Amino acid sequence: MNKENTIRPSAVIFDMDGLMFDTENLTIPIWEPAGNLYGYQITRDIVMQLIGISRKRSQELLQEIFGVDFPFEKIHAEFRRLVYKEIEENGVPKKPGLDYLLDNLVAAKIPFGLATSSSKATATNNLKKAGILEKFTTITCGDEVENGKPAPDIFLLAAKRLGFSPNDCIGLEDSPAGLMGLHAAGIKSIFIKDVIEPQQEILDTVWRRCNDLIEVVALFGL
User: Fold this and answer.
1) CA–centroid distance for 127 within its chain
2) Dist. CA 115–CA 183, nearest whole Å
């Protein structure tokens, strides 16, 4: 990539699931057995609507679909148990180029933080399992903000913790909800597709699109 087509960010904000880790493909099928345990058929089409949004919004959406008696806490607990078991046994599947990008950012002394809808406990465990926890300047999680993605709250807090204005940050996302949140926060977004192609009106807000994390290294001129 030509130098004139690169940009050096002041700080970078990462999503986690589907962006750094191939956890969407890992977790999507797990909703089915978790739901079946309590007599609910949670199909892939339903799960796709949950990607990138907060736990609170996921509960609201599932109760809109199945009714107010839907036992979200019980099913979610079973879902988390099965996910944790899978990760403990097989590790966290990293996306291609993750270590390469993080190492280049560290070498360039560009700070980076996490902004994930997952809980602090889940995020910390996954980053630790992947051997990258200590590389992050700051971690911001879904249980630390009142309004989850697509609201801008988590991204604004992440930028504040990094010590930069939103305009000086660049955010990496794979989900429509995340891209909407970055746009609402006034943060330039880089979209890397995982399992969902956002609607055109969301894509119109995207600053850059890359095929993978390796391309981001070139875009940053690292």
Assistant:
1) 12
2) 14
Tell me the pTM: 0.86
147 burial (CB, 10 Å; 0-12 / 13-18 / 19+) is middle
CA gap 175, 97 in Å, rounded: 19
Peptide bond into 176 cis (omega under 30): no
Tokens 């993605």 appear where?
A: 149
DSSP letter at 38 equals: T
* Residues annotated as part of the active site: 15, 17
What is the rounded average pLDDT of the residues 59-87? Answer: 94
Edge-first strand order for the sheet with 112-116 is 138-141, 112-116, 11-14, 169-173, 188-191, 208-209
Give which of 87, 57, 62 is closest to 72, Cα–Cα: 62
Q: Where are the beta strands (DSSP E) in 38-178?
A: 112-116, 138-141, 169-173
Grouping H, G, I as helix, E, B as strand and the rest as coil, residue 191 is: strand
| Cα–Cα distance for residue pair 76/61, rounded to 1 Å | 13
Q: Which residues pair with 116 in a beta bridge?
A: 141
Chain segment 93-113, per-residue pLDDT in tens: 999 999 999 999 999 999 999
